[in-house]
Amino acid sequence: MGNFSTYRDKSAIGWSILAFLLPLGLIAYFVFFHYSLDGETILFMDIAGIIGTVLLALNILTVYMLLSKDRMTEQMEIRKAKVIRSLKQLGHGILTLAAGGGISLVSFAINSKSYYVAIGAITAGAIYLLTGTVKFIIATVPSLALFFRENRHKAGTARLAALLAVLIPCAVPVINRQSVSIEPEMVFVQGGTFIMGCTDEQEKAHRWNAPAHQVSVGSFSICKYEVTQGQWEAVMEISIEEQIKKARGLIRGKGKNFPVYYVNWDEVQEFIRRLNVATGRNYRLPTEAEWEYAARGGVKSQGYKYSGSNNEEDVAWSSSSTKDGFGSRAHPVGKKQPNELGIYDMSGNVAEWCSDWYS
Asked: Residue 249 CA to chain centroid, in angstroms?
C-alpha cells in the first residue's frame, strides 16, 4: 500500500467506504422518486441526483488515491492527511444523522408529542453531515488535482473521471423530463347495455342522476389513469404552479404523478388537440354514458357501490375514506385498487370532464 501504511489512522478506507452511503443514498433518492413520482418536486430530485453523482465520483477517485502505491511529495502527503480527516468528519456526520433518526423514532415511540427531541436530533445530524460534506469537497478536489498532476501517466483516468462527473449530473434533469410519456395508457371497454343513473346499490344520488334509465354504448377505449400533471405540463408547456395561479386556486397536491386539476373544459379540449397533433392519434373525452359504463365495470361489472368495490377506502380518496383526513387533496394516480376493467380512481381523486356536459 506504499505510503498509506505510514499514516497512524489506518481506518481511512473504512471511513471512505462509510462515506459512500451519502452519494448512494442521494442517487437512490433520485431513482426512487424518478420512477414512483410520489409528489416530490423535480427540483429536489435533480439536486439529489447531481450532488450524489458528483460525490460518488469524488469518493471513487479518493479511494483510488488512498490505495495508490506511487511515491508522493510532502505537499501531497499533507493534502492526503486533510482528505482523511474530511472523510472521518463526513463519516461522523452520516453516523450522527443516523443516530438522530434513531433518537427521533424512540422519542415518538415513548411520547408521540416529543417533536422537539426528534427535530433537534435530526437537525443536529443534518448540520454535522452538511459540514462534513462541504469540508470533504474542499479538501478532496485540490488534493485529487495535485495527485493526478504528480502522476501524469494517470492523466487519462483523471480526464475520464472529470468528464463523467460533468456529463452524468447534466443528464439527470434531461432524463427526468423525458421520463413522462405524453401518451396515456388505454383500456379497451367492450360495448353493452346498462342502467345509467342512481341504481339500488347507490342508495342516494344527486337529482341529475335520477331517474335511472337503460343506455347502450358501443365499444371504446378509456384512460387507465387520470391525466397527470407531468403529462399536462409536457403537452401544454405550462407548469402546474402556473395553472394553479391562473385558476386562483390552492395547491392540493403537486407532483408529476398527481392528477391535473383546476382545468376548465376549453383547456381540456386544447390539451386533446395538442395531444392528437403530437401523437397522430384521435383522442377525445368520453361521453357521460361511456364514462359511467366504464366506471361501473362494463360487461365485467359486479354491481359494486363504488367503482371496483363496496368499500370506499379500497378504491377512492375522500375525507371519509382516508385516515389522514386529507380527502380534499389530490393523490398520486393509481394508488388505490382498480375497478373490474383495470381503471383507477373512478370513484374519487379529482373530478373528471366528459364530452357532452356542454354539448
From this structure: 23
